[in-house]
Amino acid sequence: MVIKSLASRRNFMRGTGHALLSAAAVGVLGGVSTSALATISSGDMDILNIALGLEHEAIDAYQIGAESGLLQQAVLGVAVTFQSHHKAHRDALIGALQQMGGTPVEAKSRAEYATALNVASITGQVDILRLAQRLERGAANAYLSVIPSFANRDLAQVAGKLASDETAHWALLSSVLGDALPATPFVVS
Hints:
With 189 residues, this protein is mainly α. It has helices at 6-16, 23-30, 42-67, 73-99, 110-116, 125-146, 153-176. Helix 3 packs antiparallel against helix 4. The longest helix is centred in the middle third of the chain and has 27 residues, at 73-99.
């Protein structure tokens, strides 16, 4: 299944809920044994490739921000750190897909990401931070939505740790942006 637009990929990932990321991908990401890789279906590989596509998007979004010249030095350092986290996720997903005999989806061109992310509308640091904030919240929601699907509690715990990372990114960005603390619980749902 080929899903062309980023919005469609996000909607597909949200819609799959319990099957968002396979046990193998979360296992590889969290250092859990990869013996479950032998039982992964082609549907799981499709889902992993969608997740990989979103990691590619996040990496490029941070790169666009870093190269924009619009970020203050301290903010740039944080952006590069967050990008490195997404690169680690990307590398783990690629490893899982290759170990399963799948073909990892390639990153799109910078121009495609720039269009999809509406980079032309970015005029300053706040715009870049808002974009990153939105992407991080989406990633947190994606990882949270997979937790109930695991019979193996270790894998559910790994998904929770990944969601925690993304939520920490989102919370820090929200703080830097001066956003008020959410008045309601379940802020990343």
